[in-house]
Amino acid sequence: MRGHAPGPAVFGVHREGVHREGVHREGVHRDGNGHALHAPVLVLNASYEPINVCAARRAIVLVLKGVAMTEEENGHFLHAARLAIRVPSVIRLLEYRRIPHQTRALSRKNILLRDRNTCQYCGEVLPSSELTLDHVVPRSRGGASTWENLVACCHPCNRQKGNQFPTEADMKLMREPRAFNLHTSRHIMRLMGRSDDKWRKYLFY
To answer: Residue 95: phi, psi to the nearest 5?
Structure first.
């Protein structure tokens, strides 16, 4: 009689010091801390220059593939059959990557990231689901979909502005929108790093 084919590996996460016996047992372990796989991880170039932020799940893949190595850990373990991996907080690429001046694609996600999920008219910080993108110069009046003409905007401000220029709606932008370059990325990394002491020595210098 033929046996059943093994199913795909399923991962679980534990805090360091909790259920440590799971490191030595075969099989899969779960707990309610799956959010650890979505935690932000700082990515360093081979030169230790901070270049990006990715999710812990992606960072683990890079480490397992031999593309990067863990420099700092966040105190969690990822468990699968016969495998226990420390979840990284900071990883470093093993080969140096040249970073072009413009590194991010123009997208809704990156506009919201650049504007820190903040409406650029009223200054309210909101979840991504409660924000939209506004064309500073309306498309119907020749405005293009560019870094310099798109900003994060809450729905009330978007309705108030409508098909007008900001001055016509008696509204003012908090800051001039610019392309998302390495300087912008570095600034956002520093903001995120304030909540993780292990990032500090790589960002604040």
So the answer is: -120, 140
Cα-based distances in Å from 180 to 47, 148, 158: 22, 10, 22
| Residue labelled with tokens 């863990």 | 70
Beta-carbon contacts of 158 under 8 Å, excluding residues fewer than 6 positions away, are 132, 134
pLDDT tens digits along 126-162: 988 999 999 999 999 999 999 999 999 999 999 999 9
d(CA 147, CA 123): 19
The Cα–Cα gap between 161 and 187 comes to: 29
| Beta strand segments in 94-182, E | 131-135, 150-154
What is d(CA 126, CA 156) in angstroms, rounded to the nearest whole number? 12
Q: 201 in helix, strand or coil?
A: helix
11 has a pLDDT exceeding 80: no
Q: What ranges do the domains of the chain cover?
A: 12-99, 102-182
Structure tokens at 170: 């008696």
CATH topology for 102-182? DNA Binding (I), subunit A (1.10.30)
Would you list the DSSP string of 165-184?
Answer: -TTTTT---SS-----BHHH
Environment class of residue 84 by beta-carbon count within 10 Å: exposed (0-12), middle (13-18) or buried (19+)? middle
